Amino acid sequence: MQTRRETLKHSAVVAGLLATTGLFPQYALAYSKAAFEAKNVPDVVKALGGQIPVESKDVIVGGPDIAENGAVVPLTASTTLAGVKHILILVEKNPAALVAQFNVTDAVEANFSTRAKMGQSSDVYAVAIMNDGRALFSKKEVKVTLGGCGG
């Protein structure tokens, strides 16, 4: 049988877990409302503390040349640079440009993949925000034949 003190302790733990796992995403550590509401690449980078993005061959973005179904487009982002703080995947013509943000340390190999929803053909960006604030990117055009938003 649990005591009142143990019940309160367990309730506090459950409330903490719920607050950080999706029920209240605005309170989660990795959530940046300004970044997810930004409409273009420079605004997303600025919201996450980066400088003006500069194109670099050290950042690699991957994805299909033609995506048959825009509802599930496989995208990748990677870099071998040291001192990376964030890796971002952005779709320029999506209502919210930021698709994914990965927080990175030097102990992690910066090589990520995800699936994104794309309503139309667009440029896809991989951006590496460095610890010193520099933002390096590469881009790739992905053509969508069947839009992911019912088109």
Automatic annotation (TrEMBL):
Pfam families: SoxY. Residues 47-149 form the Ig-like SoxY domain. InterPro entries: SoxY, SoxY_sf, Sulphur_oxidation_SoxY, TAT_signal. NCBIfam families: SoxY_true_GGCGG. This is Thiosulfate oxidation carrier protein. The lineage of its organism: Bacteria, Pseudomonadati, Pseudomonadota, Betaproteobacteria, Burkholderiales.
